[in-house]
């Protein structure tokens, strides 16, 4: 079908449609758009040989892609980006065909990556995954991408999150969100996908495979910190493969179960598999170990002795022929089964991480052709021309050699200054030479093979005999023979390195059997440089080690500065100090180095070349090795060539070597490290490991901490992870050197803890344990202490329990920390178990442990028990310090029991407890918190009398206490006294005094303090400025408040929502609605949270200013939230619109919402004051219905209202309800009830309440006793001490008489006041106890109390009743002399009895 012409934006000619291009003529063409073969309908331009699939031609010219939402992407042809290659911004591969490009920024998407899956309506196919917060979009499969869930390549239907760069298979999205797992029965496990928007790897270790997860899907239990990879969740229950093992392996699902793998001999502590018939337990990956393998190290195939049951008959020690450590043949290993062959290696050495020795699997070792892996039979000697006899042997006397055009002749005559053209070493043994030119070869060098297969690599190399090259093993440049790789890469091996075997005997100061090794910690015996991270040879029996490059040092050499040959010496011949200088460079020589020094090679003419260094490195080292010993001067040395490119070109190896040269000068090594970093060099894991080793060896702990902190904080910018560094440091450690891991893990744990990365710190400790080291106790203690400080007490306890399972031995401080964690949780019984555990471990608890337990009790408001425990331990002679007493004193103060706190303080002093500054600080704070300022000042004076200086923290506590008590003038005066002493007062102290000045109206004085603070270099904080603004608002000086606010904003001060709310509230209270709304608009523009606070203060302020209607109108504009309507309830209350407030309260309660308890309490109080007692009771019942418990004050107010109204039944019901709901009435509530009963002449009920009050442990106060004494006005009880009292006077009475009440008051130490004395005096006069009344009056005046009008009225009435009119007149005159003006009642009483006396006189007359 002809669809006509098609004009495409990416081609200048018209395109013509082709229905079917599956024929052979089209199969050779690629689509210009997607670069795939054109095998279906297409458009083409035959003139240009331009072909494009129909589906590609129909693609949109402009698209919006979720990976680049900022701008649209435009389709562009390949010609526009062929001149400069561009990478696809999604798949990171080179763009070949059409590309979607952003015209505004450097963003490219290749055609395949740009097209997304869509539904029939053309919309993107999206889905939600429970383990990820963002929407996922369906994409075309991109095999170069890995699934973020399982790690496999992206194939089939897949989805992507372009916000995080996550790609997921559809099958991974279908995993269950929660599972129940047999390894964790306590909780269900939740599916979690890593947050790929974060750069920091925060993954825990998988509890199944014990490996740290790559980013992917895991099932986790957050409370228990249990985590398993999704792919590990359901391992195969049975693995059966007859080709591997005759029996099936069964899963042993037991995490954290230590075992020794029967197949490899290594320890495991995770999920394993067992074979019951064979009684073996193996790692999962060891099941598939090959039965037979071949290595370049050995000519025969070797077999796994466990699976093939190879038994060694003798009992000798077997050494691994790779690492030369003991092989335990009871476990799996690889060994040669050939008779007489003792080749054996560890499993992990053969298939380990080194990737050496050309390991390959062998199916049938009997069919394997046996040949020498090291030397294939192809000699460089082309032809032997003649043979000669040397001793008893016939050897080639003249040969034709591949490396030379002339024949070579054998000779044993040693000539001076002749060097082998093959290995470039001096001719000291038999050799071949050319009689026509100056060409020499050692006999051994002449007989080498043309092809070479190294023992450390299975690749084939061919001999080259000319040219200059750099050896890939020793890194030296050379012009001798070399072996070049046959695989096409420019890899060369010099003849000297090629001929070095894997293990051999090296003759130095003595014979050493050395073998190839990687990453040994120590110094090279030849050059005295460090061996870390380098290829080396080490002695099997001693610390002797050599760099690979130092092994090839020639034994003798010549130099133009000396006519004699120079011999390599392994130690100085004597200790003559002048010999410690090199005769060539005249610089000081390290006596620990071999005298031949370090060699870079030997030229044909025999001239030795000194080791040269990179120019940039030389410059950096020159600065650090200058004559100055002042490190600060070194730091300030100007860099002559200070540019990043110079140092960025350095190699990691060069930097490591430079650092090693400064290993005995850690300060300079660190300076070099930092200098290189500042000048553009990117340190890698090797350079970081080098500086870490140097700092650790020199015990530079603070610098080491700073390096680790830098690594942790910059991990996302580095090309390695922290654990990579740890692994690098771990490689090659053994013996005493292995202790470095413990020290470094301690430093790393400390760094992680400091930055709050506790999971990583715990992981490091367990990594140390898995390497066979017990975690350091100090690190564990430091970690647990910081966990508690951050409130992670459950994690602390769990960590301790896990350590116990690993055989950790805590010390006394560890136990004290665990006790602290348990006490913070309130688990005191478990804390007691820790004490018992210490007893069983024979660890004596220290004072800290005991004090911690007491502090825990006091923290949970069980101070009485804490004090009992303290006394019991003290009597048991347990060591307790001042901190234990301080904890109890502070506990009592927090519980508002100052008297008990004072008793503890006295007891501490009696037992000789000595308090220091911190203890006194805690004591003073405790007394201040409970308002006992007098006792706080006493303690403060005592502290100063003992020579202990006060500080700003203590002063602030004292000033704050006065401030809370409303004694603001005292705050200001005392502040000035403390300030005048010259002591330092911090910004917190100034904040307190500023608030006090504002409360007493001295805002300007508080403003003046700002200059004083700045002179003392104290910066006023936001709290200080907010306090000043509030002070102006309290004085209604809103213009001043606004000016200060705006001035501070212009000066860069950033205010928070509290500051804005304080000012907005002040403006609203003064009726400045628009100004308050302007502030609110400012807050909204800044995006501040908690704007609800401002809504509340504006609504409430407008109501206070009388603008209730405007407050209601403002509320209509706000979001319809319960909090905003609750603010209007508060506003109605402030505006005295109690009825409207109650109606709105009811309306909100019907919707299930209540204002705050404070609002409810204030509304109830207002209802009671206005006489709406029933409405107040309804409010209480609404709170009951919504399960909100009223406060004691609310009960008390409503009980008082009902009592005042004479509705004692309602009051009693409320009183009983209060008790039934678990609240204990306070003395005020009891007194109100008793007073009401007394007024109603229900004395029996009053007496019952009084007795109940005492039975419940509530001590009556003076007001309670006064109420009861007043009640006796209605009785005719007589004092037991009175003259008219008889034994039967009180018989049958259940009400306590006044004298008994008075005696009880005295016994309890309740001091009577004027009202109490007056009530008792009045009672005695009414009961005709005249003498007792006079005695009580005298006692009252002797106590320094001034009688008031009521007291005098009672006395005058009593005198008049007894006929003592003159005494009554004298009392009136006494009142006048004391300045007390008799009131109308007093004078009326006296006048009444005077008239009565006159009438009696007239009648008698």
Protein model, in words:
This protein is of the alpha+beta class and 1405 residues long. The strands form 13 sheets. A five-stranded antiparallel sheet has the order 26-25-24-23-27. The chain has a five-stranded antiparallel sheet with strand order 28-29-30-31-32. Strands 1-2-3-4 form a four-stranded antiparallel sheet. A hairpin with a 4-residue loop joins strand 15 and strand 16. The longest helix is centred in the C-terminal third of the chain and has 21 residues, at 1384-1404. Mean pLDDT is 77; it is low at 22-26, 196-200, 371-376, 596-646 and 1275-1294.
Q: Which class do the helix and strand fractions yield?
A: alpha+beta
What is the 3D shape?
elongated
Question: Main β-sheet: number of strands, strand sense, barrel status?
Answer: 5 strands, antiparallel
Low-confidence stretches: 22-26, 196-200, 371-376, 596-646, 1275-1294
Strand order of the largest sheet: 26-25-24-23-27
Query: Helix fraction?
Result: 40-55%
Total strands: the figure is: 46
Radius of gyration: 48 Å
The averaged pLDDT comes out at 77
What is the number of helical segments per DSSP (H or I, 4+ residues)?
52
Ends: how far apart?
Answer: 154 Å
Q: Could you tell me the strand content as a percent range?
A: 5-15%
